[in-house]
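User: Can you predict the 3D structure of Sugar ABC transporter permease? Sequence below.
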Amino acid sequence: MPVGVGKGVSDRIFDVFLYTFMILVGIVTLYPFLNVLAISFNNSTDTIRGGIHIWPRMFTLDNYRTIFQYDLLLTAFGNSVLRTILGTAIGVFSSSMLAYVISRRDFIYRRQVSILFAITLYVSGGLIPFYMLMRDMNLLGTFAIYILPGIINAWNVFVIRSYMDGLPPSLQESARIDGANDLRIFWSVILPLCKPVLATIALFIAVGQWNAWFDTYLFNSSKEHLTTLQYEMMKILSNTSASQSADAFRSGDVDAATRVSPESIRMAITIVATVPILIVYPFMQRYFVRGLTLGAVKS
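Assistant: Sure. Here are the predicted structure tokens for Sugar ABC transporter permease:
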């Protein structure tokens, strides 16, 4: 038998252990999400008994009906989607532009600017000075408060710059010989080659924007038209407590007491907040493992 065609006993044993291990990793990874999904679709009274794993015992949509009947939910959802799209697009573009500047070897202040941004990773002015700064910039009670403070993130800039430093310098030199200016080189040469790292940073920013609620609480809690989904989810969860069920029992409204519970609402909220990110992730995953510079330079 030719070398490399067949597999020995040791190779087959290794494959069995490898596949078994990967199956166990998949189960461990998927089980928490499936458990949350099952509880979110399960009857609240039955949920209290426990023992629910990956399939609801008593299927119901009451938990989701309780959430979606909230008046501000559509407004909050729209604001969250808008801030996620704008915040991600502006954040990625701004961070990549700054990363390109400090990645240029002919930029004489490259080291000084990098040190200045590195300091911000370790030192912060604190919440109160930040609030006062936003107030003095007249950003309180505006939608811009969701976008402007996060335009530049030093960690994102360094990640993108590190990727750009690994690109062949001959690409930029060739473009410059052909008459391209810095903006043209950045837009037509650098950005297309940086799709993997830009997709990764975009996902990080999008998740952060989508999950953010504290800035709404701190700056726009009195502006209902500027509320966000995560903030409204937090309010719904806070308003749904065990004491409400006890009050319903005392008032004789047994159906209202057993229809929802804090546990079931918590799981339903988790699903509502997680599904949009799960839908976006598969479209960006392929860029994480794909090297677009392969074959870009022929030597």
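The mean pLDDT is 82. The first helix runs from residue 9 to 40.
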